[in-house]
Amino acid sequence: MREFNYPKTVEIMLQFIRHKVDASGADGVVIGLSGGVDSAVSTSLAAKALGADRVHAYYMPYKTSSELSLIHAQELADSCNIKLEIINITNIVDAIANTMDETFGSTLSTADNASKKLRMGNIAARSRMISLFDRSKVMNALVQGTSNKTEILLGYGTWYGDSASSFNPLGELYKTEVWGVAKVLDVPKSIINKPPTADLWEGQTDEGELGMGYLECDKILHAMEELPQNDSARLVQRLVGQGFNQGVVETVVSRVVGNAFKRNLPQSIRPIYRHT
Fold it and tell me: Is 81 left (phi over 0), alpha (psi -120 to 50) or beta?
């Protein structure tokens, strides 16, 4: 894994947040505070960069959300002296799901369990995005992102859901590096030490859904930075040759390549005009 100066990195991120907010003319930022380490770090950075009064944090539960997530979100908000407000997205999510069922003949409610979980999770993530951007308009604030580099590279997030933001100070930090920054910021250990989860459905954990640990995944992703990625088969071969587990490598490479579209704006083409 790469090594860098954590305190210096924190200072650069604080400057980045101040610049983005001041340059836009916004009064502050809004953040979705889930109780997880990523949103905890993003919120802590914002409070240090801007002051607590310019940070608007929202906990946005669905009916299956863990009570522990709210406890941790409140714990982080208290540590930063930030007011935490709750936007319950249950009615929004259920209304969308019911509308889809009524329109298309119960395609969602009758889907297999895995497909239903994924689709409901996407609806929940996008409902949170809608809520945050609506609050940002009301508060004249920017939506500050919370997605880390590991999630972004793997495509482990909902496009135009949790991946949507005005700017994202964590976007170049691997998950394991976010934990390092969390320690520098004195994020509560209860948040740092708990299994990461998007809390999209009951019992969900990131590493369980991905099928690998973040430490192993980040080592592979870091190694990939030094290798050409235009040939997936050769890339897998070279990574396995470095001692990584082949099954995990294949999963990581497949996700990085298959989800590349999530890391770019929608592509278009340049029109051709006839000269007259």
Answer: left
